[in-house]
Amino acid sequence: MARIIAGVASSHVPAIGAAIDNKRTEEPYWKRVFSGFEKSKEWMEDAKPDVAIVVYNDHASAFSVEMIPTFALGCAAEFPPADEGWGPRPVPVVKGHPALASHIAQSVILDEFDLTIVNKMEVDHGLTVPMNLVFGSPKEWPCPVIPLAVNVVMYPPPTGHRCFMLGRAIRKAVESYPEDLRVVVFGTGGMSHQISGPRAGLINSKFDKAFLDNLSKDPKKLTRIPHLEYMREAGAEGIEMVMWLIMRGALDDKVDEVYRFYTVPASNTAVGHIILENKRKAAGKHERKLKLKRAAARVKADVRRG
Amino acid sequence: MSRTPQAYDDIPGTFVFDAERAKEGYHLNMFCMSLMKDENRKAFKADEAKYLERFPMTQEQRDAILKRDYNRMLELGGNIYFTAKLGATDGHSFQHIAAIMTGSTQEDYAKMMLGGGRSVEGNRSKSGLHAPGKSEKVKKAKPNKTETKKSEAKKAKAKVEVKAKKSKPKSSKKAGSKRG
């Protein structure tokens, strides 16, 4: 049985990608940002997930205003990096996991989440920047990826609660997949930032830090934040943080926060990052069932022995 | 074109890209999208007004594009991820466009960001009706708590904040004509 072992949240600022591509990561400005992800790379090296589900948003790359799906699940075998106006990023082609992706689509649609299925899609910095941050810049990405694109460009994005519940449904789908796979879910975007209009440049560290705290300990509280509050407090584009709640919904209620990093700014944005592990003792129904089976077998044996 | 009033219109200096704006700005955004192709970028740069004829936009939208009035574009249904492609076509970094929208120089804007960004205090609400705690009553914007506490950056930030308050949607026309 497949299971979700952990969740990773990270901002996906395009300038971070540009800094990597233009080899500027050693400059003091960027070093401050990248140094916060060194531990995460080590963690990822140990965790060695078999599949990553990456929740992100497209920035007028794969989707224009012609089509605006609220939740679009990538079921293709591969997803090439998009040309965002200055040529595609020099990152490996993202390999998909069509079998698990289709399984998730089928399961969550029957669970009443009406996903859009995407069988051909290019992926932009929204997906590739967080991957660089935790996987580094390898020749090939270390595991297949299932992209889940969420509309946060046109108002209204899905509510935080809806996102959280979709995370739950994704977890259920993963846990009903027969192959033994260890899955990590990424929530990307945020944290506070506004890049449009005269209020551009808005940052709200207080909001961000409270969000990180609650993401760990009391995510249900976050599911009640209305869109207006995100936009007012965390900037018009800060509303991207609803995507983190899909990741959180896919985890156990109680998690171990293994790492956190926060810095201001990267270009126009507050950078936030957190790693949450499912507690091993409650690592999934699979283990619980096994334990029950073993206990039952012991009882039977005891009875037989009299 | 009068908009349906929305609760989020109360957020200062912000044009929420909602379904109404998406409808109004469809061709403006599709024009920006066309700039993803190099041949289109060249054609646009060769004769901007003529290139814009390919898209059935309003005269106001055309003018905003020709003047590079980014706030006006947003007001008329443009979305920042799309209009940023116009900025890129001009060879500008994103911070350059952000600075223009805030009525600041790029240098001052970059300093403000390094100093912790624009504080939310004093920037929550136009009406002042939304006042969590006492902070909103304080007219003068408080600086953000940040790691970098250069007084210079703070000054730059305060300057930008005042400007941002002034350039509410209604007055963005003026700001644009000043630029143009």
Commentary on this structure:
- The complex is a heterodimer of chains A (306) and B (180).
- Chain A is an alpha/beta fold and 306 residues long.
- Chain A is built from eleven helices and ten strands.
- Chain A has helices at residues 14-21, 28-34, 38-47, 98-110, 125-135, 160-175, 205-217, 219-222, 227-234, 242-249, 285-305; strands spanning 3-10, 51-56, 71-74, 78-79, 94-95, 116-118, 145-150, 182-188, 255-266, 269-278.
- Chain B has helices at residues 19-24, 26-34, 38-46, 48-52, 59-67, 70-75, 80-89, 94-101, 106-114, 151-166, 172-179.
- Classes of the chains: A alpha/beta (306), B mainly alpha (180).
- Chains A and B meet through helix 7, helix 9 and strand 9 of A and helix 2, helix 7, helix 8, helix 9 and helix 10 of B.
Tags for this model:
heterodimer, A: 306 residues, Protocatechuate 4,5-dioxygenase, Chain B, 10 strands, B: 180 residues, mainly alpha
Number of helices of chain B: 11
| Poorly predicted residue ranges of chain A | 281-285
Counting DSSP E segments of at least 2 residues, the number of strands of chain A comes to 10
CATH topology of the domain at 16-89 in chain B: Protocatechuate 4,5-dioxygenase, Chain A
Helix content of chain A: 25-40%
The level of helicity of chain B is 40-55%
| Main interface by residue count | A-B, 44 and 58 residues
Across the major sheet of chain A, the strand order is 6-3-7-2-8-1-10-9
User: CATH first level of chain A: which class?
Assistant: Alpha Beta
CATH-defined fold name of chain A: Protocatechuate 4,5-dioxygenase, Chain B
- Give the name of the CATH superfamily of the domain at 16-89 in chain B: Dioxygenase LigAB, LigA subunit
Shape of chain B: flat
The overall number of domains of chain A is 1
Main structural class of chain B: mainly alpha
Please give the number of β-strands of chain B: 0
CATH class of the domain at 16-89 in chain B: Mainly Alpha
CATH architecture of chain A: 3-Layer(aba) Sandwich
Give the topology string of chain A: H per helix, E per strand.
EHHHEEEEHEHEHEHHHHEEH
CATH superfamily of chain A: LigB-like
| Rounded average pLDDT of chain A | 94
